[in-house]
Design goal:
Blueprint (H helix, E strand, L loop, with lengths): L1 E7 L3 H8 L5 H4 L5 E6 L8 E8 L2 E13 L3 E7 L5 E11 L2 E12 L1 H4 L3 H32 L18
Antiparallel strand pairs: 1-7, 2-3, 3-4, 4-5, 5-6, 6-7
Amino acid sequence: MAARHRLIRTSPGTVWSVLEDGTRYADWVVGTSSSKPVRGHWPEVGSAIGYEMRFGPLRLTNETVVRRCVPGEVLELEAKAGALGTARVAIELRSWGDHCLVIVDEHPLRGVGGLVHNVAVEALIQIRHRAMLARLAKLCEEEAAEEERRRPVGQVVAPKPGAGGARA
C-alpha cells in the first residue's frame, strides 16, 4: 500500500474546495492532461470524472469514480486504468492547527495492476504521490493567498467550524 502525507499551509476547507471541483482534477493529479465531470454531481458517491492521459502522440481516456465521500474530510476514489485495472485512492484531510494534513493511500483493486504490484511499483507510486501532493499544495496555498489578498485591510476573519483556527 502506497501511503504518503503532506502538510498544506491552508485550512482543510480550502483543500476540500479544490478536491470537490471536478474540473480541477487534472490540475493536481499527475499524469492527467484534462478532466471533466461525466456522471453525477462530483464528489457525490457514484459520480465520475473523465480524464485524458497523454504519452507523446498516444491519448488514453479513463474515468475515476467516487466510492466514498465525507465532505470536507474523506474522498475515496476508484481510478480506472484500462487494461491495467483499477486502484483505490483514498484522500483524508485532517486539521493541523491552521493547516491541513493530507494523507493519500493508494493500492490496486482489480486487474493486472494487482498482479504486478511489487516494491518497484510501490516506489513509483510514492514518487507520483509526492508530485501530486506538491501540485495540490501549490494550488491550495495559491488559492488561500489570493483570498487573503482580496480581503479588505483590517477585516477580522472568524474561524469556520472545523477550519482549524482563526486568522486576524
